[in-house]
Amino acid sequence: MTPTVIGRRRALRFVGAAMLSGVAGSLLSATRTRTFAQADGAALAVFTQVSGVLTGKSGFDLALAMGLYQALRQTTPDFDAGLVALKVSLAQGAGADGVLAFDDEHKPQGALAQAILQAWYLGVAGKGAKALCVAYIETLSNRAVAAELVPPSYSYGACGSWQARP
Amino acid sequence: MNNTLSADIVVIGAGICGALLARRLALAGHSVLMLESGPRVKRAELVERYRHSPFKSDFMAPYPYSEKAPHPTFTPEPNGYIEQAGPHPFAAQYIRMLGGTSWHWAAQMWRYLPSDFQTHTLYGVGKDWPLGYDELEPYYYEAEAITGVGGSPDTGSPRAKPFPMERVPASWFQQRVTERLAPQFKVIDDCTARNSRSFDGRPVCCGNNNCMPVCPIDAQYHGGIAAASAEQAGVQVVCEAVVYRIEHDAQGRITAVHYYDWNKTSHRVTGKTFVLAANAIESARLLLMSASSAYPTGLANRSDMVGRNLCDHPAIGVTFDMDEPVWPGRGPVSPCSIGQFRDGGFRSEHAPFRIDISNASQVAAVTKELIGEGVYGVKLEGAIRDRASRRVSIKNALEQLPDPDNRVTLGAGKDALGLPVPRIFWNIDDYVLKGTEQTRRRYDEIAAQLGATNIKHSKPGKFGNRQHITGTLSMGADPANSVTDPFGRAHDHPNLYMAGTGVMPTVGTVNVTLTAVALALRTADRIAQELSHG
Amino acid sequence: MKTCFVFLRALVLLACSSAAYSQGFDAVTVARGQYLATASDCIACHTAHKGVPMAGGLVMASPVGDIVSTNITPSREHGIGNYTEQQFSDALRKGVRADGQPLYPAMPYVSYAAMTDADVHALYAYFMQGVPAVDKAVPPTELPFPMNVRASMKLWNALFLDESPLKPAPERSPQWLRGRYLAEGAAHCGTCHTPRGFLMQEKKELNMAGAQVGPWYAPNITPDGATGIGGWSEAELVQYLRGGRVEGKAQAAGSMAEAITHSFSQLDEADLQAIAHYVKTLPAIEKAEDGAGKAERFGQGKPGNALGELRGKGYQEGMQGAYLGAQVYSANCAACHGVNGEGTPDGYYPSLFHNSATFGKTNLIASILYGVDRKTGDGHVFMPPFGDQPNAVNHLSDDEVAALANYVQVRFGGGAPTVKVEDVAESRAGGPQSHLLPLARIGMGAAVLGLIALLAFVLLRRRARGGRP
Predict the structure, then answer these.
(1) Whether C382 and B198 lie within 8 Å, measured CB to CB
(2) Which of B174, B375, C260, C446 has an alpha carbon 20 to 30 Å from C131's alpha carbon atom?
(3) Could you state, in order of their start, the residue ranges of all structural domains in chain C?
């Protein structure tokens, strides 16, 4: 195994607390997170279940999940209701072969699914003026390529360390 | 009104050209004052703002914006600062802050080809410059030595001395693409002001792959470094000083400039010599705003050329997935290009162009794409890896010929300080359109040679802007059709000089900063010479 | 009369110098002298920043004032071109210059006193014949009163200069003896690594146990397990001297980086091994840097980040709040040293945990303010400074550096924040100042006042007794 593979993966695994980038306001302050978790455990559970289906992953970092959930709630109208509807659609089978397919009637669920994927994979909730960046390094897209790529603005090593085949 | 500031030389605009000109004159012992409309911002803040930005593909997003020194912004919505009057929007991107626009570039520092200086003589198109490559060559080298430029020697631009910096090693991506495209296409290392070794007290490149929007460690040169070096040389710098009027006397000598600070208090600054280096759009705007009864069409504008002949490098692009994993995103963002279509007899028929091969990380782009396609679940991660490892993004730079109808004028709207906003009319002619046909052919050949799938050309008839803005303050020998003389001095005002890309009469086939800096250094020498003769 | 004297003096000098030059040193001796000069690192002090080698002019901040190094090229007018070998030897080993005046012990003659006659001869040959003469004057050192009274150094030498500092040790191996000869002699490790007493003399009983050098701390290099380098192998020591770095342990910066660049990295492998061997046999002394605690200084810390604490805050807010250190780290350091302080996989950017630089506070602050600049056979290692230097494109204030250093200590180092804003200010000013100068002045002032008082008393008494003769 090349040192590159071990080093980067190990480094990412060491992350204790979630790595969350700035979000406008005190949306994700520690105390709010704790109170939130106590009060809305059920809503979060739906979110993580739906996220699990959409991302194909399990065992999400709780703080990251909460941060994304709160940001999505802030930027998406009727998020909780939409979540429930989406959960139902997914259970009924809204996508074969890894491609989501919603008919016209369920278009809103399709949009919501993409919003949730955008949050997990790109760390951004919402669009346009409402968009919030919640995570950067710990986004699923950056984790997906962590063995070969470092997120922009972090480093590879000595000058020329990118010459070798990844 | 405040009347306290004065210096021998007053420079308006603290971008890379203004700052290096100011520095040179300060080192020669002159008192120099540099006025910058925007704020002073720390690199650390820019890096963090990038990381927190929801719009990471917008390179302007990390830069703080103030309506006191407005510039175009694009996210979340375009602010429409520039009124667009032509068939093609001129989507200019520039930064009004200490150091200017080169804070967010990829440090491309190319020399023109000798033929770029005389396209009219050689090919019957465009304009001849009032100076030739040989005259500028020593200044090219000085600019390279100050900024630390390295690159391929096979550019077609003759050199008296070797590059002062060794080139940055090529990534695996660049190596593979180069091998696969040879021999039909010759991929060469770009000429960049990027440290392949620690230079000038700055660290070596560590592959942050973030050149645009901001280098986190200053391994690449930029205007912020130029401005800091100007201050160290003794230039007095005043930020948040928005010059809104240039004042002259009855003989046409510039006597003072007036600026608003960000509280909208007006200040008057006097000097002996004035240099306008506020970028090609804002400098033209200021000259037009300074119209007076003696100069009703604006200062330095007896020729009616101020703001005209606006050129950029219109660009079209293509993306596709190569047939082998090459992992772009490791090392600098713009490391290599194809230059073999920059010159030749065909220039009398259609635009020449340079082809840039991007090494920017494609992860975010392919992720957005895949989510948009509905991909989800386990398949999504694998698809991201697959596409991110093979995605090639290419764009070009087409030479646009100067057209007096492509111009910057004053718009109807006003900014927060009550000053008229810029208005731009921009069109693309057949010369460029024919050049794009050639480009598309080449793109398809390149794609084929790389075993490409998922090929996507940019929309036909749509062009991107490369931000290589020239022409609005064109230099020339004849005052009837140019704004400044061959040394950047305004024909109409003996103590007003201009620096920056605006003085360049043609846009050439390559990024324009090195040429603009070389010209600025030459202008500085000329100013010093004039001052020493009294 | 004066002309006569000048003429006679010129004749005498001419005679002496011809005597020196008429010897014509052979190439082997000159080469050996060059090697010894490298081992003694003459060039580091006797060359100005970007100056001509050995031509002096480097201004060194000492705790008692600025000392300017002299021109030691063979220039007749401005260098040591007129020195006889005896005068050269006296300067080198006794701290006396050709005009009889003592040198300040910034010149480590107390260490060079260990050198053999043969080696001094070779060095002389090198300096007379192997170094190009530079006819450029160097400003003289002018320490503040009373330090500028060089005669006082005679007393200091009487107390602290041992003209034969290396005692016979026949039971030791040739490698050990060679190592001692270099470490205590030419390489003068003790000059930096041995703490000094009140009169600025090396405290021999704490040999190599660690000392402050300007803004840096030259650590304890005795083989103590926790506070020293007991956990290092001889091979690791050699690696450090050769390349300035042992991954997961330490890297050289400041004056040590210079010493490695100019001196150690160019020595023979056998000599480096001898030095390493000797150093590992020094008496182990348990002495930690002030405030560093007694834990082992190389294995501390673990990766981690504080982005969770920055959640919800933009940059400006982060810079105002309780997590200033985390914000400064993310904005200035993480781009090279990693979000979790893990460095890069190739180790070029070191991890900040398991790194002695983050264990104490002195070198941590100094690294941040002054950066690292080290050239060896392995290449050039460069970390930019974040102080007031022209190339510190991101200047950090004392508060910001203190917050950053504490963040690094807690997260990657010993675990406890010990950095105060005053520590940063002191480092920025060049390190702690000695009390010697003000106290000497106070002492002298008190003595003068005492004398005046005595004189006044005597005079007054005489007047009181009337005009008796």
Answers:
(1) yes
(2) C260
(3) 20-134+175-279, 307-428, 439-469
Q: Which of C307, C348, C379 sits opposite A19 (nearest CB)?
A: C307
> Residue B221: which CATH number?
3.50.50.60
Task: Let me know if residue A160 belongs to a domain.
Answer: no
Q: From C388, C348, C353, select the one nearest C368 (Cα to Cα).
A: C388
- Is some CB atom of chain C closer than 8 A to the CB atom of A162? no
**C342, C344, C354: which to substitute to probe chain A, counting the most A Cβ within 10 Å?**
C344
Taking the Cβ of residue A133 and every Cβ of chain B, the question of whether any pair is shorter than 8 Å is answered with: yes
Structure tokens at C69: 């190094």
Kindly tell me if the per-residue pLDDT of C454 is higher than 70.
yes
pTM of the entire predicted model? 0.90
Structural domain harbouring A56: 3-144
* Mean pLDDT value across residues B397-410: 98
Which of left, alpha, beta for C347 (phi over 0: left; psi -120 to 50: alpha)? left
Residues of B in contact with C348 (CB under 8 A): 206
Is A150 within a domain? no
Distance (Å, whole) CA B253 – CA B490: 11
Q: Does the beta-carbon distance from A166 to B385 stay under 8 Å? A: no
Architecture (CATH level 2) of domain C307-428 = Orthogonal Bundle (1.10)
Instruction: Let me know the angle formed at the C-alpha of B236 by B233 and B241, rounded to the nearest 5 degrees.
Output: 140
**B/C interface, count of CB pairs below 8 Å:** 60
Q: Does some domain include residue A162?
A: no
Q: B336 CA to chain A: closest CA distance, Å?
A: 14
Query: Quick one: pLDDT at residue C11?
Result: 56
State the Cα–Cα distance between residues A156 and B39, nearest whole angstrom: 32
Indicate the number of domains in chain A: 1
Q: Please state, in angstroms and rounded to a whole number, the distance separating the CA atoms of residues C225 and C216.
A: 22
Tallying the residues shown for chain C, one arrives at 469
Distance in Å, alpha carbon of A53 to nearest chain C alpha carbon: 26
Task: Note whether C235 contacts A: Cβ–Cβ < 8 A.
Answer: no
pLDDT class for C4, splitting at 50, 70, 90? low
Predicted local distance difference test score (pLDDT) of residue A1: 36
- In angstroms, the separation between the Cα of residue C283 and the nearest Cα of chain B is 40
In chain B, the residue whose alpha carbon lies closest to the alpha carbon of C313 is B52
Which residue does chain B place closest to A124, by CA atoms?
B54
Phi, psi of C375 (to 5 degrees): -115, 125
Binary contact (C314, B52; C-beta < 8 A): yes
Residue A31: what pLDDT?
45
Of residues B2, B317, B356, B311, the one with CA closest to residue B177: B356
Total number of domains constituting chain B: 1
Q: Sign (positive/negative) of CA torsion B454, B458, B464, B468?
A: positive
Would you name the residues of B annotated as active-site residues? 468
State whether C393 and B43 contact (CB < 8 Å).
yes
Confidence of residue C467 (pLDDT cuts 50, 70, 90): low
User: What is the rounded distance in angstroms from the CA atom of residue A152 to the CA atom of residue A143?
Assistant: 13
Q: Is some CB atom of chain C closer than 8 A to the CB atom of B533?
A: no
> At C232, which amino acid appears?
W
- pLDDT bracket for residue A23 (50, 70, 90): very low
Polymer length of chain B: 534
Say yes or no to pLDDT of B299 above 80. Answer: yes
A89 in contact with B, Cβ within 8 Å: no
Taking every pair of Cα atoms in chain B, the longest distance, rounded to a whole number of angstroms, is: 76
Q: Is the pLDDT of residue B93 over 80?
A: yes
Domain that holds residue B332: 6-532
The answer to whether the CB of B51 falls within 8 A of the CB of A134 is: no
State how far the Cα of B504 lies from the Cα of A23, in Å rounded to an integer: 44
In a domain, A81, yes or no: yes
**Taking the alpha carbons of C138, C139, C143, C147 in that order, is the dihedral positive or negative?**
positive
> What percent of chain B shows pLDDT beyond 70?
99
Query: What's the CA gap between B67 and B416, in Å, rounded?
Result: 6
B4 confidence band (pLDDT: 50, 70, 90) = confident
